[in-house]
UniProtKB/TrEMBL annotation:
This is aldehyde dehydrogenase (NAD(+)). It comes from Actinacidiphila yanglinensis. The keyword DNA repair does not apply. Its EC number is 1.2.1.3. It catalyses: an aldehyde + NAD(+) + H2O = a carboxylate + NADH + 2 H(+). The lineage of its organism: Bacteria, Bacillati, Actinomycetota, Actinomycetes, Kitasatosporales. The active site is at E253. PROSITE patterns: ALDEHYDE_DEHYDR_CYS, ALDEHYDE_DEHYDR_GLU. Gene3D superfamilies: Aldehyde Dehydrogenase, Chain A, domain 1 (3.40.605.10), Aldehyde Dehydrogenase, Chain A, domain 2 (3.40.309.10).
Length: 480
């Protein structure tokens, strides 16, 4: 039993305004994993006031970039040293399979290192050479921190989402109020401990588990200068409207309904084995999951059969079991949502290849769903257009390459996607035509030096690397 009966406000553990603790339940069997204090608007006000004072009057925004880099490097080292504990905490809270959370720790290191490298190479201040040699003016261009950042993250991959925001925000000299989901109160409480041990100064960061109402209080706060949000497109629209009214800086990493285009010359076995990870990672509760599988009609049944065999081979069960590939959904309402979509697919006339709305036998005590594959799916069906956020795949046939690109782009989303082909140059040519922020070829891992984010309803702005770091800075030009 883990208990966090205090809130991490402005670098210190303080009494919450509401003393009632929330029980954190296991999605596997609904056992109580721990208890944690939850922030209310009064706690947000304290955190924002401290962040405002630390930015306006404190040393952090005015320290040399090298000093900030050293602090964030210590944080990354501490996280690496505690990788097993972090993976176990997140797996227990979220129901994410242990293999996925452990594998993700190396990605967190690469993510942080890319930001640190970008900070070391960032031209924080430079003098521009005049375009007109006859001009006497000299322009000094500075990158300065924006101010107080409200970072709001979802429950499905909390350490990755948190580090993707707090590392660049702090490297740039901002102060941060990190709002995390109640489900992640334990792992994010441990993150707060690591921030304290890393030596982040008093006032510079707070970590607050809180509900949606308290989250809206945070993003609406007049002393917040930038909102950095990861979550659903619906919530993103609401946040964008608030930011627009108040002219706050805003970056949004939102939902997805990504397509995997299997070209006629692809190795189907290789593609399907890659989609085991590209489509079903984190129990399918991933915004980048490639859940629309586009198959050429000449090989359609071959792809459907291979996906059926793959999905039926995956073990569903206790996320702490090393043989488990797919664990439970995070909450009962999420379990019900996914099962309702499976029923909807049947009602819409899609062919149920494997799976279904039934709960897997022997797993009735948790929030489990049966991994499902639909075939004969039309792009007009809701299961082909809406983000299900669970282990449900739809297979859509296409006539030719132009048809495949048209179907891939027939979505309000544009976050991720993939192309499979035996000809890499050909795959790259198709990838260039897909309107989405990230495309992988033949299952390549997403890199962290390049920018990550979405087109269309999948968001505004980019994270990772130099572009992600730059999104937490303002340009100032001083003319001499």
């Amino acid at each position: 039993m883990i208990t966090y009966d205090r809130l991490f406000v402005a670098g210190s553990w303080t009494e919450p305004s509401d003393p009632e603790l929330l029980d954190i339940l296991s999605p596997h069997d609904e056992a109580v994993l721990g208890r944690a204090a939850q922030a209310r608007p009064a706690d947000v006000d304290r955190a924002v006031a401290a962040a405002r004072a630390a930015f306006d009057e404190g040393e952090w925004p005015r320290t040399a970039p090298a000093e900030r880099i050293a602090v964030l490097r210590r944080l990354n080292t501490l996280r690496e040293e505690n990788a097993e504990k972090i993976a176990a905490l997140m797996s227990a809270e979220n129901g994410s399979a242990g293999w996925f959370m452990r594998a993700g720790q190396a990605g967190l290191t690469r993510q942080a290192n890319a930001y640190l490298k970008a900070a070391e190479e960032m031209p924080w201040e430079e003098t521009l050479v005049p375009s007109d040699p006859a001009s006497p003016a000299r322009s000094v261009v500075r990158r300065e921190p924006i101010g107080v950042v409200a970072a709001v993250i979802p429950w499905n991959s909390p350490f990755s989402a948190a580090m993707a925001k707090i590392i660049p925000a702090l490297l740039a000299g901002n102060t941060v109020v990190l709002k995390v989901s109640p489900e992640n109160s334990l792992s994010m409480g441990f993150l707060a401990e690591l921030l304290q041990r890393a030596g982040v100064p008093e006032g510079v960061i707070s970590v607050l588990p809180a509900d949606r109402q308290t989250s809206e209080h945070l993003v609406s706060h007049p002393d917040v200068d930038k909102i950095a949000f990861t979550g659903s497109t619906g919530a993103g629209r609401r946040i964008a409207s608030i930011a627009g009214q108040q002219l706050k800086r805003v970056s949004l990493e939102l939902g997805g309904k990504s397509a995997a285009v299997i070209l006629p010359d692809a190795d189907v076995h290789q593609a399907v084995q890659g989609l085991k990870f590209g489509s079903l990672l984190n129990n399918g509760e991933a915004c980048i999951a490639q859940t629309r599988i586009l198959a050429p009609r000449s090989r359609y049944e071959e792809v459907v059969s291979a996906l059926k065999d793959l999905v039926e081979s995956l073990k569903v069960g206790d996320p702490s079991d090393p043989d488990t590939f797919i664990g439970p959904m995070v909450r009962r309402d999420q379990q019900q949502r996914v099962r309702d979509y499976i029923r909807l697919g049947i009602e819409e006339g899609a062919r149920l290849v494997t799976g279904g709305p039934q709960i897997p036998a022997g797993l009735e005590s948790g929030y489990y769903v049966t991994p499902t594959v639909f075939a004969d799916v039309d792009t007009s069906m809701r299961i082909a257009q809406e983000e299900i956020f669970g282990p449900v795949l739809v297979v859509i046939g296409y006539d030719d390459e132009d048809d495949a690109v048209r179907i891939a782009n027939d979505s309000e989303y544009g976050l991720s996607g993939g192309v499979w082909s035996s000809d890499e140059a050909h795959a790259l040519a198709v990838a260039r035509r897909i309107r989405t922020g990230t495309v992988t070829v033949n299952g390549a891992s997403i890199g962290f030096d390049g920018p990550f984010g979405g087109f269309k309803a999948s968001g505004i702005g980019r994270e990772y690397g130099a572009v992600g770091l730059g999104s937490y800075t303002e340009y100032k030009t001083v003319t001499l």
